[in-house]
Amino acid sequence: MAAMFSQNPLMNGPNYSYNDAPRVNAPEGAREHRFDPYTDNGGSTLAIAGADFSIMAGDTRLTSGYSINSRHHPKLFKIGGTTADQKDATIVLSVVGFAADGEALKERLDAICKMYRYRHGKPMSVKACAQRLSTILYQKRFFPYYAYAILGGLDEEGKGAVYSYDPVGSYEREQCRAGGAAASLIMPFLDNQVNFKNQYIPNSGEGHALQERERRPLTRNEVEILVKDAFDGAVERHIEVGDGLQMMVITANGIEEVLLPLKRD
Amino acid sequence: MTSIGTGYDLANSIFSPDGRNFQVEYAVKAVENGGTSIGIRCKDGVVLAVEKIVTSKLLKQSANKRIATVDRHLGVAFSGMIPDGRHFIDRARDEARAWRDTFKTPISTADLASRMGGYMQAYTLYQSVRPFGITAIVGGFDSTEAAPVDGEVGSGPSCGAGGKVLGKTHGGPFLYMIEPSGLYWGYYGAATGKGRQSAKAELEKLDLGGPAGPALTLEEAVKEAARIIYVAHDDSKDKEFELEMTWISGADGPTKGLHQEVPKALREEAERLAKKSLEDDEEEEPKEEKMEE
Amino acid sequence: MDHRPQAWGRPRDDVYGAYDASYLHNNGPKTATQSPIVTGTSVIAIKFKDGVVMAADNLASYGSLARFTDVKRLRPFLSTSVVGFGGDVSDMQFLDRHLKELATDEAYEHEASSTTTDEGGSGAGEGQLNAANLYKYLSKLMYRRRNDFDPLWNQILVAGLDAHAKPFLASVDLRGTTFTSPSLATGFGAMLAQPIMRRYAATEEDAARLTREEAVNVIKECMKVLFYRDARSLDRYSIAVVTKDGVELSEDEQLEKQSWAFAERIRGYGTQVV
């Protein structure tokens, strides 16, 4: 980047006007690998589990640096349907981070879920799929998929299930999770609005005696509004989030997809 | 044949005392039983045609093509054992790719004929193999521009050192025929298979050689090729056959330098004319008999 | 005579000291492309109602040196698609040869599987690779090479029609990152040309209303802006229009109607001090 604006370009070899210019800071004798296989394509994702549904959401902006590469690049994928259009899929994967790894991860998981269906004659449960996804991620422990994945579906009892991952496969089932660029903006909002953290019943006592507001599962309508609000907020404060909001609602009747506009600035 | 019982015909790579390789001669017999294949080199391209004998009504019409493309600008037709022909084509495609890998340019018809001639000849040398039971006709159109280089990024100097030589022409249509012995020659017109005798007789009547080059155009050649296959076909031996025809023109011709099947409409027109000319001939013959009477 | 052939032709130990045999074997890391050498700058493309227009200038730079001025960076594929290359030129040539081989193999396959003569073997037919197929292939190739730490140092735009005969335009880079948009640009074009193109085709619906002529004009305008402001650019360029009728590629276009009047107002460079 420095060479781009510098009046004193590097004098040892061809000069480059972009930030992949060779950096001459390798220690003596060390061989520098100049190729960085990773990049961050921004964007944010969000998942909330309800009593009998799960909602997955993600913005559709794809960035590199300050550039918007695409205003419509979905981060949500239906997984494990019988056909290419995933009409009968029951599980949704969201990926955010390095888009190429996310795409590769999605295709691996989808292929594995399809194989499972062919071999066992039934779709994979979210629980099994969640464990398998962890294994896929950990298999690349020393050259990880740089992708923050969230898996959503309905569990064996029909309750909403959300599993969240780090890039090397640690995972847990949660009520809600935000991932990606604006995760740190959205997650505290979710803690408060979904898990009712820091919400107390007024006049119920002093100090430790203060009673927490009782948790209750949110309705689908409440969650949809929450998701939109979370993203509208993130768009205001994070440059890598915006353009469109893709939402998938997983219920016993299948997966509904909604596309809403977000600010494009 | 005198070879029977002498033992000299039992193995490849063994000459008989009078200097013959009987295995190769037997391979030629296999070719002589195959459907007729012909090639015509004309002014602006090459036409290949095959009399595809229909061995069963259970085979889908016009499926199982007998003429194959090698690279994009070469075509191979053959008579004889079909599996041998398939292998020959696989090898020709490998040769064409290897040539491109090395020289970054399409293989010329002559070079492919040379390589494949050498390959077939190698199958006459060893105890462990038998010769190819095919005779292959290789047609191609080598680019008339200076040879294009794969991956080249610019047009280079327009003339002078390292550039184009003004007025120099390259390439053109070429036709080769390769026999089981590995022998190959370049031809104006080539024929092989069971109808080769009458096909050759017909080819010789066409204006293909001469110092000024062939006068025949591609479209005329397509019609002649269809007619010759119909003439060479022997109704008493094989009832059903399909005519398969391909052609190759230069970059400015109908196939744009590629080896392609002759379009359906043109092929059907050529077949119609071929059938008509056969009928005309049949009508003439009884007339002559009457006159004698 | 020393009985070890390894010692033949080497400096004598007693004269020069022990020979450093580490030069004999190469156990170091696998060497791969570490940086681009000869490079092409922006490639830009925009969709319109029945196809895609793409352009790239004819310059290949060696760092800041305008090294080759007749380099065609738009490549047609099977007369159904156009591939535009930004970045390293030798990697572009490798890919070009690779795609040529792919096209040849595809033609063999197509021939073997064709059971009707209706097509008469003419040009693009059913079963042939379309732009979307080609793009998928290229993106898998690029991602695989990045996984091998031997990247092909390019950003590539692929234009043509998809399986539903709708205009198709997408990008893949050296890391295998893939995306699509009504208009796309690589390199400097992403900063300079993309905002202009987005004025005309912000959404797919906008692009579906553009006529061919409008799209070509937008691209020509963008090429002019790029020539004004991108120091590694040239006023000779290639432009391709791909529709259902095939690829029309013009490889020697000249930028027209340039106006350098704005240069008068630029201060602070060279001899101008005020």
Automatic annotation (TrEMBL), chain A:
Its main location: nucleus. It is found in: Nucleus. GO terms for cellular component: cytoplasm; nucleus; proteasome core complex. Keywords: Cytoplasm, Nucleus, Proteasome. One of its GO terms (biological process) is proteolysis involved in protein catabolic process. It comes from the Eukaryota. Gene3D superfamilies: Glutamine Phosphoribosylpyrophosphate, subunit 1, domain 1 (3.60.20.10). Coiled coil: none annotated. PANTHER family: METALLOPROTEASE TLDD (PTHR32194), PROTEASOME SUBUNIT BETA TYPE-1 (PTHR32194:SF2). This is Proteasome subunit beta type-6.
From TrEMBL, chain B:
Keywords: Cytoplasm, Nucleus, Proteasome. PROSITE patterns: PROTEASOME_ALPHA_1, PROTEASOME_ALPHA_2. Its main location: cytoplasm. SUPFAM superfamilies: N-terminal nucleophile aminohydrolases (Ntn hydrolases). It is found in: Cytoplasm; Nucleus. The 26S proteasome consists of a 20S proteasome core and two 19S regulatory subunits. This is Proteasome subunit alpha type. It comes from Chaetomidium leptoderma.
TrEMBL record, chain C:
GO terms for biological process: proteolysis involved in protein catabolic process. GO terms for cellular component: cytoplasm; nucleus; proteasome core complex, beta-subunit complex. It comes from the Eukaryota. It is found in: Cytoplasm; Nucleus. The keyword Nucleus applies. Its main location: cytoplasm. PROSITE patterns: PROTEASOME_BETA_1, PROTEASOME_BETA_2. It holds the Pfam family Proteasome. The keyword Cytoplasm applies. Keywords: Cytoplasm, Nucleus, Proteasome. InterPro entries: Ntn_hydrolases_N, Proteasome_beta4, Proteasome_bsu_CS, Proteasome_sua/b, Proteasome_suB-type. Non-catalytic component of the proteasome. PANTHER family: METALLOPROTEASE TLDD (PTHR32194), PROTEASOME SUBUNIT BETA (PTHR32194:SF6). Belongs to the peptidase T1B family. This is Proteasome subunit beta. It comes from Chaetomidium leptoderma.
